[in-house]
Structures are given as C-alpha cells and as structure tokens.
Write a structure and sequence with these properties.
single chain; 129 residues; mainly alpha; 0% strand
Length: 129
C-alpha cells in the first residue's frame, strides 16, 4: 500500500531549492579552483621564462644573480612540491607543502629586498633561502 501524500509546508520547497543551489555553488567553486590553479601555473611558467630570456643581457651585473635565483626558485619549488604531493600519502607531505609555500614566500621577499637595495643575491645557487 502506498503512503498518503502529505501536503508540504510552504517553506520546504524553498529549502530544497537552497540545497540544490548550494550543491551547484560547491561545484562552481571547485571548477573555479581548478581554473585558478591552472592560471597560477601559467603565471609561474611565464615567471621562469622571463629570466631565461634576459639572463644573457644581465651577465656581469648584480641582476644576473637575481635571474639565477628566480630560475632556481621555480625549479626547486616544483621539485619540493612534487615530493610533498607524493608524501601526502603518509601525511608528512601536507606539512612539507606548507613549508614549501613558506620557503617560496621567503625566497621571493628576500629577492625583492635585495633588488630594492640594488644588491646581488649572495648565494643564488642555494637550495634554502
């Protein structure tokens, strides 16, 4: 036997609609995050191409060390990120990803500060800061 249909209260239709919109909003946020991630990667690639292109013009100047530092920052951050992602399986990767972000920020701030003072990077070949 089929259960009788009970008339719905006025608010229930609106609540169901809100749930649908919340689900759609979640999907849109996830898609925009993927697009944002791709956009960030494109910017990173552009940021490493520029020092490669201009490196020859900078030879013998304090800016040469900055170009080397920027190129190494890109490649090392890529290396550290890949290692961290693989290590996320055992949880330590999440901590390493956070440390990679902090490392990346510190390197860029350090480079900007030296550039602002028209100074070369002391050790542009370093794996750390």
């Amino acid at each position: 036997m089929q259960d009788p249909i009970i008339p719905r209260p006025d608010n229930s239709g609106k609540m169901i609609m809100i749930v649908y919109w919340l689900n759609i909003g979640t999907i849109l946020i996830q898609v925009s995050s993927i697009i944002g991630t791709i956009f960030i990667q494109v910017l990173s690639v552009i940021a490493v191409i520029i020092p490669y292109v201009y490196r020859g013009n900078l030879q013998g100047t304090y800016l040469e060390s900055h170009a080397t530092y920027q190129i190494r920052t890109f490649w090392l951050s890529l290396l550290y990120s890949v290692i961290s992602v693989f290590l996320c399986i055992i949880f330590i990767g999440y901590i390493l990803l956070l440390l990679t972000v902090i490392w990346y920020i510190v390197r860029n701030v350090k480079g900007l500060m030296a550039l602002n003072k028209a100074e070369p990077i002391r050790d542009s070949q370093t794996w750390l800061f």
